[in-house]
Amino acid sequence: MKAVVFFNNKGGVGKTTLACNVVSYISQHFGKRVLLIDGDPQCNATQAFLDDDLCEEIYLSGQSKQKTIYNILQPLEVGEPSISGKVSPAPRSENLYRTDLLPGHPSLSTMEDRLSEAWSKLLAAEIPGFRISNWVEQLLVHYQDDYDLIVFDVGPSLGALNRTIILASDYIVAPFGCDIFSILGINNIATWIQKWKEDYDQSLVIAERKDRLKNIEKFGCITDTSDKFRLAGYSVQQYVSRKFKEGRRPVKAYDSIMKDIPTVVHDRLSFITPKGMNDELRLGDIPYVYSLVPLSQSSKTPIHSLASKDGVVGAQFKQVQQYSTLMDAFSKTLLENIGLA
Predict the structure, then answer these.
(1) Which DSSP symbol is given to 309?
(2) Is residue 229 part of a domain?
(3) With CB atoms counted within 10 Å of each terminal CB, which end of the chain scores lower, N or C?
(4) Max intra-chain CA distance, the chain
(5) Is residue 308 domain-resident?
């Protein structure tokens, strides 16, 4: 089983839309058992998957049988170092993405202080700090026999919640927008991940010196970060293309930025790039798909599956087909990069 997080510290680049469509495509066309975990307090992936009545039941009625990721984390709020393993995902049969979903919850944001406090204890090599900061590792162990692939969709924050999710993930997929702020975002991601990786590794050294490493291992905490949060690839999203003699390519305003991004990724994220994989990191660029996104949102249907019953007309059919072709190539390369081809 592999765990992948879709992450960018800049919002509005279409990250959630991409994550939802990729897991749906892999689940339906590559025969993988896939779970999407909505780790964003805004719950955009949950809203994309579940119908409005079920969302109202989960978040407003208080009577829903369907629990969320917040229910898993609740024991941490009262000082427990272990999560609740009694939460079952919403089954794929109940959504048109045909993928199991662990719904998000707005109250996830309230966990930031608790997780920050645990990180401080981890830096002092205290075992409770390691256990709480490794809550995602506990979760992955709980689901490891049920899925081939677990994907986390997270918000753009560089806070404690995302740090714990990235820490336990095997791979990172970084969707970038086609603007200068995405290039700045690459630098932010590189600086941030490198700093807390060094902090975590140093805490392991301190724990070993204090003869606490065996207990940390006993509780299933990560003791080697060398095979964690490696870069599985990136994409450039929502650029505008135009037809030229040699075919379609981005308009000039975006062209230079798209040329710069691979170099910046190579230079700044080389420390988390698996050896020999630089050429395969570009998973596929996603052009702006105009009205397909609102059609997808209103029908609760992945873009690659949109049809006339969802409101698709005229030239939109060709757009859906082109998007499906992109998803096929993107998903295939991703699965190869993470060892699930």
Answers:
(1) G
(2) yes
(3) C
(4) 68
(5) no
In a domain, residue 326? The reply is: no
Integer Cα distance of 105 and 308 in angstroms: 33
Domain that holds residue 121: 2-288
CA 137 to the chain's CA centroid: 15
In a domain, 155, yes or no: yes
CATH number at residue 28: 3.40.50.300
Q: Please check whether residue 244 is in contact with residue 252, taking contact to mean a CB–CB distance below 8 angstroms.
A: no
Per-residue pLDDT of the chain (341 residues; tens, 9 = 90+): 999 999 988 777 789 999 999 999 999 999 999 999 999 999 999 999 999 999 999 999 877 899 999 999 999 988 889 998 889 999 999 999 999 999 999 999 999 999 999 999 999 999 999 999 999 999 999 999 999 999 999 999 999 999 999 999 999 999 987 777 777 888 888 999 999 999 999 999 999 999 999 999 999 999 999 999 999 999 987 555 545 555 555 545 567 777 788 888 899 999 999 987 767 899 998 877 878 999 999 999 999 999 999 999 999 999 999 999 999 999 999 999 999 98
Q: Which residues contact 265 (CB under 8 A, 6 or more apart)?
A: 174, 186, 231, 234, 281
Number of domains in the chain: 1
- Print burial letters for 170-203: b (CB count within 10 Å at least 16), e (below 16): bbbbbbbbbbeebbebbebbbeebeebbeebeeb
Read off the tokens for 151: 């994907």
C-beta separation of 4 from 171 below 8 A:
yes
**Residue 332, CA distances (Å) to 13, 34, 245 in order:** 22, 15, 29
Give DSSP secondary structure letters for 210-241: TT-HHHHHHTT-----TTSSEEEEEEEEEE-E
